[in-house]
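Lab notebook, bench 4. Still working through the backlog of constructs that have no structural model yet. Next entry is a single chain of 722 residues. Request: give me the structure tokens for it.
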Amino acid sequence: MGNLRLVLLIAALSSSAGAAEVPLQPFGMDWRDNAGAGVDLSSLLEAPAGRSGHVGIKDGHFTTAEGRRLRIWGVNVTGAACFPAREDAPVVAAHLARFGINCVRFHFLDSNWAGLFVRGRDDTRVLDPKQLDTLDSFVAELKKRGIYTNLNLNVGRVYRKGDGVRDYEYLGLAKVVNYFDEQVQLLHKEYAQQLLTHRNPYTGAEYRHEPAVAIVELVNENSIVEAWFSDRLLGKNTQKNPGTWTDITAWYAEQLTAKYNQWLQETRSPRELDALRKLAGVAEGAPIPRLTKAQFKDAPAERFHAEAAFYMHLEQAYFSGMYQYLKNDLGVQALVAGTSDHNHYNSGYPLLTSTCACDVIDGHVYWQHPSYIQNPKGGRQGFTIPNTPMVDDPSNSTVVQLSRTPLAGKPYTVSEINHPFPNEYACEGFGILAAYAAFQDWDGVFLYTFEHKVPSEWTAKMPSHFEVRPDPVKMMNIAAGALLFLRGDVQPARETIYRSYSPQQVRESIRLPSSQRPFFTPGFNPAAALVHATRIRSFAAALPPSAGFTPVDGGAPFVSDTGQLAWHHAQKRQGFVTLSTDRSQALIGFIGQADKPLPNLAAAVENEFCSIILTSLNDKPIAQADRLLLVTTARAANANLQWNDKRTSLTDWGTEPSVIEPVKGFVTLRGIGAAARIEAIPLDSGAKPLGRPIPAEKTAEGYRVPLGAPVTPWYLIRVMDR
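Model written out:
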């Protein structure tokens, strides 16, 4: 084994410059093929969802009605995908359950292209009965299989003339104005009432009382503080249908300035107001203008903090008001989340001081989200990505970015995360996420997104950056992640580093440079989140800001304080992560550098970069289990896909089918004990045998399993005749 490992390692290193040219082979995903699967993780789910009552909170974590800990391993469905035909809904639900998905986040239910609003009207104030019926059917099918629902209230609503919203054609998705415009706030409450008091005929319950509805989210990626530091409160937009992230119009800017000055009158003394006017350079009695981003650096503290406090006040009033409306006026029994902390190039703490009024804290992050190229008319005409591996950059990893957000005593979910296609290192994403989410003791993860379209339009290729449904690499890693996260295979951190921020520190963090990302906490090493858990203890003035954080050795591997996770990062193109628990073990990244085997897993592969996850299919340790899941993944793409010269964008997205880079070489199962025979069964997308079982060769090190033929990203390992 040692000599073969050396040969394969030399071959991999000598071909690393041309690794991108390794041939990819067809492997399509069939979402309709769910019966008789050799690997079926639906046993991880408790059916029906909410069978004993509503999801609750105990000691800052989700619980079932009986008080048992509940973790969420979920996916999004977006836009049209929220509304599968009646005949497709049970098949989709079965497919999700088979991969261990136990919650679906319904995103863009209010979209303009495929949402709940009646088309052809001049307003968005009436829900379409046919769309509601389709949604109801899908929610009921999910519930039958133990899959909870997360309902998003405001994501993609585009207002129409009859809605009575000023400048409706210029608002895009109408972010920000909900924090200070009374008509938009009225419409938010009206829609919430219409949807949440609707009775689902297939479950017999109104959504506000439905125990399978775990979470209701108020707004998506929407913060007026963020709009302020992004210069989207200037009032300069004159373009109709401007898209998602847009400046407000002049009328709204005038209203906002007026509300700001009214708030100052109510909260500041005449002497303080006079001082603010002098700092702003305006005459006595004149309105105080609002700051632009360019003025932040030189703005006196009194003026900067006054305006920051105003925007934070608007957010706090909105979230607390909507929360009380849902809970007290409508009687919603689901947990409520405000919005996500999603912009990690800037501080998220001002927003968190507002969303903590709700039940659930939430975060979003993507590894190298595409940067879109705009044409002169504002439309997209391409994208770029760095296309580099996360294992080489642990301090900026998705895990570290998300770790800044959790609050002590509150459940924490990640409702959007992905390694967007066509990143060639995406196989690293979900396994690392599942392991560190368990280590940080988070409560839920929703991968973005299962699909955007209705099932009749699903194809065997990646149609855009975010779908996971057609991606063999991501789907098989979802299955492995479900096992290790939902079972809690990774122990929670032994030590938690708590951080507290004074109100002044929260406001001042807004204008800290992006070099302080993602924590915006001087003296705190972001990599500490790979060694210990970290949470925010308080934003209260009574507690002093945190200081004197435990140092982290940046030159050594970042080893979790449980000893189960290690992130090696010494040099570029040599990073890798190891996971070692009784029931799950993994090698992820440039694993040719991992020269020490894990207790039950060793690998010698030709691939420069890959992910290998071995996990028990029951509650027994790997060493004692008779059935194991082995997931071996590298690159995924579409057939005939074409990169640009720098491999930072595509010149051709390619065609069907999906293709993968097979992981070739050997894995060795170590410490299995008295097993007399082990075989690996290569699986197709329906988890059915793909060819004959492959017998493992018994060696001095363990049982050696050859990889790569037939082409597959996953295997069922059977241990027989102990």
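Notes after review: Residues 1-20 have pLDDT under 50 and may be disordered. The two ends are 24 Å apart (CA to CA). Flag for follow-up if needed.
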